[in-house]
Amino acid sequence: MEGPVEVVGDDGTLYTSRRFTAAICTCRRTRTYPWCDTSHRRRVKPERAAGDEPEKKTDEPEKTDKTKTMDNKTDGAA
């Protein structure tokens, strides 16, 4: 948005930004709510221990005896 900008909060509080460009925070990490202060950029990912491999992500769910196939038959059933 281009300023000046006025935003009315849920509790009726009027927030005003006189900056030329204003961004509304949606992550709730900002210290200047409702305005974005780019706190979302500082989010730190947890470090992995040495030798740990990242989890493998697949599009296919693991099949178990109770997993149903597309024809609604249970895998492994006669």
UniProtKB/TrEMBL annotation:
Q: Which GO terms describe its molecular function?
A: 2 iron, 2 sulfur cluster binding; metal ion binding
Give the residue ranges for region: Disordered. Answer: 40-78
Specify one Pfam family: zf-CDGSH
Q: Which controlled-vocabulary keywords does the entry list? A: 2Fe-2S, Iron, Iron-sulfur, Metal-binding
The name on file for this protein is: Iron-binding zinc finger CDGSH type domain-containing protein
Q: Which InterPro entries match?
A: FeS-contain_CDGSH-typ, MitoNEET_CISD
Q: Does the keyword Metal-binding apply?
A: yes
Q: Which residues form the Iron-binding zinc finger CDGSH type domain?
A: 2-46
Matching entries from SMART domains are given as: ZnF_CDGSH
The answer to whether keyword Signal applies is no
Here the segments flagged for biased composition (Basic and acidic residues) are: 46-78
Q: Which GO terms describe its cellular component?
A: cytoplasm
